[in-house]
Write a structure and sequence with these properties.
Strand content: 5-15%
Number of strands: 13
Strand order of the largest sheet: 3-2-1-4-5-6-7
Shape: globular
Oligomer: single chain
Structural class: alpha/beta
Distance between the termini: 10 Å
Largest sheet: 7 strands, parallel
Helix content: 40-55%
Number of helices: 16
Length: about 400
């Protein structure tokens, strides 16, 4: 089988909610014997070249009235990447399926499939991998904030109503849609995308994390994508409302903050104001180094969508995760057995104190978390569901 893959980000190394599932989906497809032709709107490295034939994606620019209309209706969230279809078809002979990630490539993927059908009469299977349903993200962004929403958030919330229909049309064309949680599937159902072709496939983790022994360290870890203010606000809330209070009784505890290589002045200010906070700005090549020697993962997510990768990775590494209910989206965890669920600053403080006590008594909760992760987060357990999409 020949599969055309349309990607925005290089998934090697896998490092976020888009690239982690993409990398593992491609690896599973390749292991089945499929030939992969990859078009990517990103830099290429040797790791990607090992997966398939790779070409740089040629995109078509927008301008004038079309660009203004696209921005006003927020279509750019979905149609931002218009690819040169003729270039793709010249490099992709006799393909049987198209895989794309994320949703912003859906419009172009559908056009490629239609063009092949119009020219040859051959029906092409279309597989969509979406980490978040975009209008669902926009509509929950305001309620997830711990501070007053910004003007941009309100505008996005209102504009999202204009594009739910567009998102629905893009995804209805797909033969299979991989989503990560029941909440994502429920949102798709609300906008008219439902049926057996919507497959819940939560992210897995790197198997190397299962080899990390539960630590007796009580240091905290906070991992986030700080390209926007979202995680900065969550971190600032945690430091001011919980961590500073915790230092009154645990003055040697450290908070390790991993930023995925993003630098931000507000992050620097948070670190300067608190010497117990250690900031890691560079990309960490070996994922084990992020979690080794840490005891507790802090996850004040407060959003109603998406599978939280850092929570799964922390549990797989034997850390105790303290997070709100949404931090465990797509999981069937048990409070005070393999995690701690905390929904406000008092809960977070008390849960961290309980986690510290548990670690000092042998870390049974961290061990239980790792056992749960080995059962539920291995990519091997997802292999058949990926392959069923192309059969």
């Amino acid at each position: 089988m020949k599969i055309l893959c349309l990607l925005t980000e290089n998934p090697v190394p896998a490092r976020n909610g888009i690239t982690i599932p993409t990398y593992n989906h491609l690896k599973i497809l390749k292991s089945s014997g499929a030939d992969l032709t990859i078009f990517i709107d990103d830099e290429v490295n040797d790791g990607l070249l090992d997966i398939g034939d790779v070409y740089h994606m040629q995109t078509l620019p927008r301008g004038g009235v079309e660009k203004v209309f696209s921005e006003f209706t927020l279509q750019n969230a979905f149609y931002d990447i218009l690819i040169d279809i003729e270039h793709v078809l010249s490099k992709s002979l006799n393909i049987d399926a198209i895989y794309y990630s994320p949703i912003s490539l859906g419009y172009s993927a559908n056009k490629v499939a239609l063009e092949i059908f119009n020219r040859t009469g051959k029906e092409i299977k279309v597989l969509a991998s979406i980490s978040d349903c975009y209008t669902g993200v926009l509509k929950t962004s305001i309620s997830s904030r711990k501070s007053l929403p910004k003007v941009r958030d309100v505008i996005n919330y209102l504009r999202s109503y204009l594009i739910s229909n567009l998102e629905s049309k893009v995804l209805k064309f797909a033969d299979t849609i991989f989503v990560q949680t029941e909440k994502d599937k429920a949102w798709l159902s609300k906008i008219g995308v439902e049926g057996e072709n919507v497959v819940i496939l939560p992210n897995g983790v790197s198997d190397v994390l299962f080899n990390i022994n539960s630590s007796l360290s009580t240091d905290l870890i906070f991992v986030g994508n700080f390209r926007s203010d979202y995680y900065i606000e969550k971190l600032n809330w945690f430091v001011e409302s919980v961590f500073n209070k915790l230092l009154l009784s645990e003055n040697n505890i450290k908070l390790h903050v991993y930023t995925s290589g993003v630098s931000h002045t507000r992050l620097d200010e948070i670190q300067i104001n608190n010497k117990n906070i250690i900031l890691y700005n560079g990309f960490i090549d070996d994922i084990k180094d992020v979690y080794l020697g840490k005891g507790i993962c802090i996850a004040p997510i407060f959003k109603s969508y998406g599978f939280i990768n850092k929570v799964a990775e922390s549990m797989s590494s034997g850390l105790i995760v303290v997070g709100d209910e949404s931090a465990f989206n797509g999981m069937s965890v048990e409070n005070a057995h393999n995690c701690f669920i905390a929904n406000d600053q008092i809960d977070f403080y008390e849960a961290i104190c309980a986690a510290i006590k548990n670690i000092k008594n042998g870390n049974s909760i961290g061990m239980n978390a790792q056992l749960y992760a080995k059962k539920h987060f291995s990519w091997n357990s997802r292999k058949e569901r990926v392959l069923n999409a192309i059969r």
